[in-house]
Design a protein that fits this description.
The protein is an all-alpha fold and 141 residues long. It folds into two domains: 3-75, 434 Repressor (Amino-terminal Domain) (Orthogonal Bundle); 83-141. 70% of the residues lie in helices and 0% in strands. It has six helices and no strands. The protein has helices spanning 3-14, 18-24, 31-37, 45-54, 60-65, 84-140. Helix 2 crosses helix 3 (31-37). The chain is elongated, with a radius of gyration of 27 Å. The relative contact order is 0.08. Keywords: Coiled coil. It comes from Larkinella knui. This is XRE family transcriptional regulator. GO terms for molecular function: DNA binding. Residues 95-122 form a coiled coil.
Length: 141
């Protein structure tokens, strides 16, 4: 999943506007963030660093590579406990990622099945061609 999509998911999960999100990163306007969201720009290292500083609960692995949960698991103290809503959001995103991976695996499986059928078909043609040559030799003799 492209980083722009993950960034949009993060903004949605934080329940902030793009402009508010950009301002948390020290931007006066939201243009840079809009360009990243629409795939016109890739975020620079400094921008990613600002996101992680502004929102310390965001999981860097998820932001950079799409791996793991959107938010880091916090120590289970009364002040730092993850809310049920956060857990549900994390589960929804994990399910979304798993569905994407399953779809990709299904596509790969279908392509491999097609290639295998083509190879088997070619092998049958070669076998039939050999049988045909043998029968032609036996009728000549």
């Amino acid at each position: 999943m492209p980083i722009g999509v993950r960034l949009q998911q993060l903004i949605d999960a934080l329940n902030v506007s793009v402009l508010e999100f950009a301002r948390q990163l020290g931007e006066k306007r939201g243009e840079k963030v809009y360009h990243i969201l629409h795939g016109r720009l890739k975020p620079r290292y400094e921008t990613l660093q600002k996101i992680l500083l502004a929102y310390p609960t965001v999981n860097a692995d998820w932001l950079l590579r799409g791996e793991g949960l959107m938010f880091r698991t916090l120590p289970q103290t009364p002040l730092a406990a993850i809310t049920l809503d956060d857990r549900l959001r994390n589960m929804e995103f994990l399910l979304f990622q798993l569905n994407e991976r399953v779809a990709l695996l299904q596509q790969t499986n279908d392509l491999l099945r097609q290639e295998l059928e083509e190879v088997v078909g070619q092998k049958k043609v070669i076998s039939l061609s050999r049988v045909s040559r043998r029968s032609d030799r036996s009728t000549e003799a």
